[in-house]
Structure formats: C-alpha cells, structure tokens
Fold this sequence. Notes:
Strand order of the largest sheet: 3-2-1-7-8-9
Strand content: 15-25%
Structural class: alpha/beta
Number of helices: 8
Order of helices and strands: EHHHHHEHEEEEHEEEH
Distance between the termini: 15 Å
Bound molecules: adenosine-5-diphosphoribose
Radius of gyration: 18 Å
Largest sheet: 6 strands, parallel
Amino acid sequence: MRDHVVVLTGAGISAESGLSTFRDNGGLWEEHSVYDVATPEAFARNQELVLRFYNDRRRQLESAQPNQAHRLLAELESRYRVTIVTQNVDDLHERGGSSNVIHLHGELTKARSSQHPELVYDIGYRDIQPGETCERGAQLRPHIVWFGEEVPMLDAAAEMVRTADHLLIVGTSLQVYPAAGLVYEVEPGVPVTVVDPAEPPSVSRARFIQKGACEGVADWVAGLS
Ligand code: APR
C-alpha cells in the first residue's frame, strides 16, 4: 500500500501564481472588509458589492497559471497516494494536475442557489449577475464558505488527515478555524512539515522550511525517500 501524503494548503501556495493572499501586506483583507464581502449578512445587505468582489477574483483566476508547487504535488501521485486539503477557492491544484482535492472553503468556478444550497452550477470564469437565478428562481451566489457558515467538507478532510503518513502544510497562516484545527487530527509520530517564507504558524513537532511554496515544496519532495 502506498504511503498517504496529505497536503493542507492556503493562499500562500497560489501567491507565486500572482493571486493575493488575505493577511499579508497588500492582502485582500487590507483592501476589503470581511464584513462587507465575506458574510451572509454582507450578501443580504449589498449583493452587488459581494458579487463584484468575487467576479473580480474569478476574472483574475482565469489568467493565473498553476506554479511549480502545484505541479510537484500533482506529480507526487505517481509514487504516493496524495490528498490535497485546501482552503483556497481557486482551481490551480486541479489545473496543476492534482486528482484528489478537497475544497474546504468552496470554489470560485461554481455558483449556487442562495435559497437551495444543493443547487450548485459550474460557471467557469464568468461573472454572476445580480438578478441571475437558479432553476427555482432564487438569486445565485458564489459557491464560497463565508464567515459564520458551515464547512461541509470538514469531516471528510479530518478523516484524510487522520490517515496521513506525511502531513505537509503550505502557505497558510492557520488563523481560520475550523480549518486550522485539522493539524491536531494527525496521528502522533507522523512527520509534519510547514512551508512558509514568513514566521511559521505554530505547529508543534513540525519541521519548518522557511521558503516560498515553489522552492519549499521542491525541497520537501527531494527529501522524501
Ligand atoms: N509561498 C508560501 N507561503 C506564502 C507565500 C509564498 N510565496 N507568500 C505568503 N505566504 C504565506 C504567508 O506567510 C501566510 O502565512 O501564506 C500565508 C497566507 O495566510 P493568509 O493570507 O491568512 O491565507 P490563508 O491561511 O489561506 O487564509 C485562510 O481565511 O480569509 C479566509 O477563507 C479565507 O481560506 C481563507 C482563510
């Protein structure tokens, strides 16, 4: 049975593809207030502002490309069972070639009904318009997990971390729960490595590679037997 590599990723893994992170200098949460664009209350208050925020990010994503870190994790599937657990809503892991990707916080390339959450639609990189509805007549919204909302894929992700033989954490500040709590699901004795160019998020017993994702993941892969 091949070893199971689980990779928990955040916005930092897509930084070298030109996509902004949230909490770094010049990050998204410096320019926008979470309370204006990333809560159900914000959507109820000002749909146009929220739709514009995600339409802009979706257009940016269309011209972004997967980077070396995304590609290396996909290539690893030839030797290991690899599960990507990502907080990212971009599709760069899939475009990089990864086949097992769990999106904890939703996906930019999908829309869903604001009244019937089971109605989810692939929309590629196009805008969602105010007044655009699902098949039951309710306004469409981005298929994103907003602050204060359930994280439907959390249990599936926790199960993956519990069965990991290696846990790699790339480009996340581990400040947002419940996603950040997944690091505590790893079995004792399983090697844990964090790749981040800045001060590492505190993960006990973890080895730390203080580099950007592309170089750091390359180092980590080179160190795997
Ligand atoms: N390579 C690797 N890591 C990087 C790079 C890089 N080139 N550039 C920055 N980083 C690191 C930062 O040092 C930071 O630790 O990526 C991390 C980004 O942290 P955040 O901006 O907080 O993003 P993330 O952890 O993904 O946010 C979690 O918060 O806003 C919500 O829903 C949103 O999914 C998101 C969640």
